[in-house]
Amino acid sequence: xxxxxxxxxxxxxxxxxxxxxxxxxxxxxxxxxxxxxxxxxxxxxxxxxxxxxxxxxxxxxxxxxxxxxxxxxxxxxxxxxxxxxxxxxxxxxxxxxxxxxxxxxxxxxxxxxxxxxxxxxxxxxxxxxxxxxxxxxxxxxxxxxxxxxxxxxxxxxxxxxxxxxxxxxxxx
Length: 172
Ligand code: FEO
Description:
By secondary structure, the chain is an all-alpha fold. The chain contains 5 helices and no strands.
């Protein structure tokens, strides 16, 4: 039987699995907004992010199951789906990633305090992933800020997946 998960680590892992699902829901809403605006490259990019967030949640869920704890899925709040402009949307994505990093850091801190080695190792993967996630989000904000005219925004939309993949390995 695996060693029990300390209560503070357990509550952090459960909360974080739901935060990842919440992020998936948020990115799906962003993908839909971009589709409606005919920003098809951005729509594909955020749809992929939604898939990635579900994979992140699955990693934590598997960890809980392997350690003998049933995961608990919570109701997801409606994501933000109204954006005045693309810049507001990408800034929201950046804020979501920053909040996600805080959630990961909180789980890791609890795992350190409680000497929970398996959760520490799991969180190493997430800590590294958040460096990439925050990097593409910051780059996206910067690139959208500089695409001021309609022509440059269309150009960015056509190339956004490749641009971010070249820098951060986000594309398959
Ligand atoms: Fe699961 Fe975007 O971090």
